[in-house]
Structures are given as C-alpha cells and as structure tokens.
Amino acid sequence: GFMTRYERKLFDDLKSPHLKYWVPFVWFGNLASKARKEGRIRDSVELQTLMNEMNKYRSWCSLLFGYDWVGIPLVYTQVVTLAVYTFFFACLIGRQFLDTDQGYQGHDLDIYIPIFTLLQFFFYAGWLKV
To answer: Can you tell me where the transmembrane regions are (predicted)?
Structure first.
C-alpha cells in the first residue's frame, strides 16, 4: 500500500545482492528535488532540512542492516550459558538452610519446595533458549 504497482515492479526488477532498503530513499530524494524545482517546497532551507531528516533515517536503517548482517559470535552465547548455569549452581548452594543439628537459634528445619527459585530457573533457562 506504500507503492504504486509501477513502483513495485521497478523495485522488484532491481537486481541487488543485498537488501534494497535504500531504493525508496533515492526515490524520495529525487521527488524532493523535483518538488523544489516545481515550487512545492518554497526554499532550499526546507529542502535541506527534509533531506537531512531523510538521511538520518536512512543511516538508522543502514545501522540496523549492519546488525542483521553480522551475527553474534558464538562465544557470547557460550558466556551467557555459562553465566546462567553458574548462577543457578550458586543458588543451589547459597539458598540452603543451616544445619539444624548445630542448634542455631531461630533456624528450625523448614522443608519446602523453592517455588520462586524454580520459577526463576525456568524463566532464565527459557529466556536463554530463545
């Protein structure tokens, strides 16, 4: 709905080994220059402001394309995996109760299922898999 059928045909017929996100920006620049010549844009300052904003948006699209093109190195996923599993190993040790045979005051035996630790584990492990 953003292009006419003719523009869509021109866009599809253009051969490019990469994404063609830049084509509408070129069309926009040409149309803005044509609008200036026809008097639809009153002065060059307005045209310059319009082109600067368009170039800023185009550079953001280019940056996004760069992030998509270069994958995350495998070592990052390995580091995150190791961090998640290390965290939960530390939780297994750190969230244990004190030995009740030692007779610490106020530390009676309390047997329960650690619901929040399990929820936390499922959340982080599921997030890691995503």
So the answer is: 82-98, 110-127
